[in-house]
Design a protein that fits this description.
The longest helix has 14 residues, at 3-16. The chain has helices spanning 3-16, 73-81, 99-109, 167-175, 199-209, 266-274, 292-302, 360-368; strands at 20-24, 32-39, 43-49, 54-61, 65-69, 113-117, 122-131, 135-140, 152-155, 161-164, 213-217, 225-232, 236-242, 247-254, 258-262, 306-310, 315-324, 328-334, 345-348, 352-357. The chain is an alpha+beta fold.
Length: 372
Amino acid sequence: MVENELVKKLKQLVAAKLYCNIEIGEYINDTKSGQPISVNENFLLLGYINEFQCDGFVIVPTENITGIDTDNDFLNYILKEEVICSDYEGMSNFDISSFENVFSSFKQNKKNILVLCRELDKVYIGKVVEVFFDRIKFLQFDVEGVWNEFYSEIRYSDITLISFGDRYVEYFSKYVSKSGAYVNRASDCIADISPDDKWVNVLKQLSNQKEYCNIETKEDYSCIRAGVPMIVSNSFLLMAANDHFQYNGYEIIPIKDITYVEKGFEFINHILRSENIYPNYEKVENFDLSSFEIIFNRFLSEKKVLGIDYGKNHNIFIGRIVELSNDCCILHHFDAEGQWQKDNIRINYCQINRIFFDDRYTMFFYKYIAIN
C-alpha cells in the first residue's frame, strides 16, 4: 500500500470513528486493534481496544504499518451498542508531528511509557529523561519494579511503536519506586525451568499458592499464556487467564504441550494481591479434567459457548458442542461477523492447542449473535 493511500484510509477511519486492526511489521503479536484517533504522514495515534475494553493508546510510525483490516462491521456494531471507547476527542490534540514532540510531551508530564524496538528484540518501560533530534535518553525499570542503574539510549529509527496509559504500564508505575532513582533491591524473579516429568508437580504447587506464572507451549513465543493455575490433572491444566492485571476467562491446556513454566514473579504477585485482583474460583469448582471427552461433555450439558485454538495454524473456532465421541467433537460455530455457520466442524482432540471460555471476546460476541 502506497503511504499516502494508507494515510488517506486512516483519516477516513478517524472521521468515521471506526475500529480496525493495524498490522505492524511481520510479527503477528505486534498487530494492534482499536480506533484511530489522529494521523499524519509520519504517525498514527490509536486508541487501543483489547477484547471490547479500552486499554490505553499506541503511537505507530506510519512507515511501520504493513496493513489495515477494516472488515469489522459486527465488532463496530458491538462497540457502539456497548458504548465502548466512543469518545477520544480529548486525545485528538496530542502532538504526533515528530518523535521529538511526542517524547517531549512524555518528558514534560513525567508519564511512564512503553517503547518497543522489535528489530532489536527490546522492550523498554520507564520515563523519558532527555530528548534529542535522533534519540532519547530513557530510564527504565524491570519486571520486578527496579529502576535500572544506567540510562538507555533509544534511537528513533529502531522504534516499532510506543504505548501509554494501558493497564500494564499504569499498574507497574503505581508500585515502582517513585523516586526514579536506582533501587538496590535483590530480585528472586528467576525463570524456573523444570524437567518435563515435573510439570504437573510445579503447576500444582503454583495452584496451591495461587501464584501467577507464564506457560509456554509448542516452543512458540506467540503461545505464551499468562495467569494462575487453578486445577491440574495428569493430562490438563486449567488456568485463569491474566490479561494485564485483570482476569479474563479460563483456558484449558494439554500438559503434553507445555514446554516450560516460568514462575517467581514476586512483583507482579505483589501488585495483584495489593489490588485485590483474584480469579473467580467458584466458576470452575470441581471441573473434571480427566479427558477431552469429559471436558466437552460439561460444555455440551450446559450448552455453554467456548473457543478452541486448533491445529498448527492456531485457527480459532467459537461456538457450542453439539456432539462428541472418544476422539473428536462436533462444534456448531459462528464467524467474525456473528453468523452461525451452516456446516458444523469436526474437532479432533489430538489437534487441540487449548480451550478457552468466559473471556470477554467470546462472551461479547455470543451476547449479540442471533441464537440458533
